Amino acid sequence: MKTAREADLEEESLQENGVIKTTQDQHSSISPPASTVSGVPDDEPFSTYFEEKVPIPEDVTQMFSFRKLWAFTGPGFLMSIAYLDPGNIESDLQSGAKAGFKLLWVLLGATIIGLLLQRLAARLGVVTGMHLAEVCNRQYPTVPRIILWLMVELAIIGSDMQEVIGCAIAFNLLSVGRIPLWGGVLITIIDTFVFLFLDKYGLRKLEAFFGFLITIMAVSFGYEYVMVRPDQGELLKGMFLPYCEGCGPAQMEQAVGIVGAVIMPHNIYLHSALVKSRSIDRGNKKEVKEANKYYFIESTIALFISFLINVFVVAVFAEAFYEKTNIEVNAMCNASGSPHTDLFPLDNSRLQVDIYKGGVVLGCFFGPVALYIWAIGILAAGQSSTMTGTYSGQFVMEGFLNLRWSRFARVLLTRSIAIFPTLLVAIFQDVQHLTGMNDFLNVLQSMQLPFALIPILTFTSLTSIMNDFANGLVWKIGGGVVILVVCAINMHFVVVYVTSLSSVALYVLAGLLCIAYLCFVGYLAWHCLIALGVSCLDVSCLASRMLTGHNDIYLLKDMDSDTMVERLEEEHVGGVVISSDTVRS
Questions:
Q1: Residue 294 class from Cβ within 10 Å (0-12 exposed, 13-18 middle, 19+ buried)?
Q2: What total of structural domains would you count in the chain?
Q3: Cβ 401 vs Cβ 149: under 8 Å
Q4: Phi and psi for 574 in degrees, rounded to 5?
Q5: What does residue 565 show for φ and ψ, rounded to 5 degrees?
Q6: In a domain, 2, yes or no
Q7: Model confidence over 527-569: pLDDT tens digits?
Q8: Is 357 among the domain residues?
Q9: Is 578 helix (H, G, I), strand (E, B) or coil?
Q10: How many C-beta neighbours within 10 Å does residue 45 have?
Q11: CB contact set of 350 (below 8 Å; sequence gap of 6+)
């Protein structure tokens, strides 16, 4: 028998080594990363993004508390803005103009899939206290980690370009062409810097500002919806009947584009970080479980609202402009005295719309008020998503590279990376070329999806990281199937886009890039399959697994084999959880 003194010493030793014993009422997980940056003292207080944590009210008498739900409300709505960015709005209006109401069920399915993926992201942040980029930094070797960071940065740059383009177009429409596109880009740069520092006046004020922008979008696009008065029967039929009667390649390509626009890779990284803004005792299993429940409820509400706003846009263009021809629109714009009649050639081809033309067409058919309200909605969508995109860039850069820069330096760098190429395009191209870039940017983001979806499924499936909150069998299988389907759909989108380029040189370049791309995706998928339980793939650790029975031992690469076996046996027998400080790669 151990004396009380010996037990205390053993407990202190375990805590010093990053190992914490669990009891029925306590849960332990990976600790937030400690600083390893030279020249910065470890005890120096450092504000990463949120200088405060929102306290959670205690209410032990109720299974559900609206006060607690209100305290957890915020991160889900910031996350939902990515479902309302200008790229999504353009996908919505094109879906309505090309297929009517027939693809609403695709939008509904994509939103539900997005909700399930966001659930995994939120759980990772709540349980571990680290966001996805930080976990990737600790788990993957150096070279794959750097490649992964570059791929995620590309996705963020692509998304930011769409958002800044949306803002610039909105300014152009609101000023009746007086503000050029490059001027709109510069205005977006300035006001983004201003708004990003709102959280210095309180995190809840920042979240309230984002809520205000979402309200503007809902009112703006809701106004267009009420004015057009779409057929409700056709709308419900298109939403709940998974069939597309009379659809051809153009409609099928649009369906794929909807999935690619809705599910965005950087949003997984963003949501896993935003949930860290609440004061949660991760050593208390009950609190962690409760936080997961309320975050899921909040995310469901937020994505339901974003889904309704997307439906407003689809329905407006489905009712008013489905199967319209250019010559019909040209005649209507002429009759209304619109200065943009030359956008629509005098032919009988189907109307092709984008964010800019969409506003013009609304103005021609329903008056200038409809155009200005549309522009206000696009401006709110672009401005809010630009800000969340900047936060994504900050989280990703600090997480992957373990940077500890000043707040201004981080904002300046992440905004410059995204804004500079957009500004060049705005200066040297006209509005039609600028909006035409959205197809390329959607393809770019579609290609980056595996670099968010595969890691999130991998890490949330590992008991060494998530402990009691690791994915069960149903989530592992379901998550794997969903990710496989989403990635396959988006790769089809990429193939369709590349084959439309009609250039042998581009085919060769695309082929070489695809080989490298598929090799890296295969590497990530290999690790993911091992985490999901396909242990036969982990040849290098076969002997260790035979001793321990753990499929996730391959992650503990900084420990020698004897220590790995010993520690994992302790976890298996005594409920000991490994701290993140011993799980670095």
A1: buried
A2: 1
A3: yes
A4: -105, 5
A5: -60, -45
A6: no
A7: 888 888 887 776 655 544 444 444 444 454 433 334 334 434 4
A8: yes
A9: strand
A10: 6
A11: 97, 98, 323, 324, 325, 326
Determine contact, residues 279/55, Cβ cutoff 8 Å: yes
Domain span including residue 131: 66-537
Q: How many C-alpha atoms does 553 have within 13 Å on its Cβ side?
A: 28
Q: In the prediction, which pLDDT does 46 show?
A: 41
Residue 302 tokens, joined: 């937020």
Residue 327 lies in a domain: yes
Closest alpha carbon to 206 in 81, 25, 295 = 81
Structural tokens at position 580: 């993140």
Which is it for strands 576-578 and 19-21: parallel, antiparallel or unpaired?
Answer: antiparallel
Asked if 440 and 500 count as a contact pair (C-beta separation under 8 A), the reply is: no
pLDDT: which is higher, 216 or 585: 216
Report the distance separating Cα 208 and Cα 50, nearest Å.
15
What values do phi and psi take at 59, rounded to 5? Answer: -150, 90
Q: Which of 7-11, 25-29, 62-66 has the lowest mean pLDDT?
A: 25-29
Rounded-to-integer distance, Cα 167 and Cα 163, Å: 6
Has residue 561 been placed in a domain?
A: no
CA distance 90 to 314: 9
Sign of CA dihedral 108, 239, 106, 320: negative
576 secondary structure, DSSP code = E
Query: Per residue, what are the HEC states of 279-310?
Result: CCCCCEHHHHHHHHHHHHHHHHHHHHHHHHHH
β-pair partners for 454: none
Distance CA 55, CA 389 (A): 26
Q: Which residues of 212-242 are buried (b: 16+ CB within 10 A; e: fewer)?
A: ebbebbbebbbbbbebbebeeebbeebbeee
Helices and strands per DSSP (H, E), number in the chain: 24, 2
Contact criterion met (CB below 8 Å) for 165 and 436 = no
Q: What's the CATH number where 295 sits?
A: 1.20.1740.10
Cα pseudo-dihedral 86, 456, 307, 390, rounded to 10 = -30
Q: Give the ranges where 337-367 is alpha helix by DSSP (H).
A: 355-366
Residue with tokens 């800044």: 164
Separation CA 119–CA 116 (nearest Å): 5
Q: What percent of the chain has pLDDT over 70?
A: 77
pLDDT digits (tens, 9 = 90+) for 437-451: 776 777 777 788 889
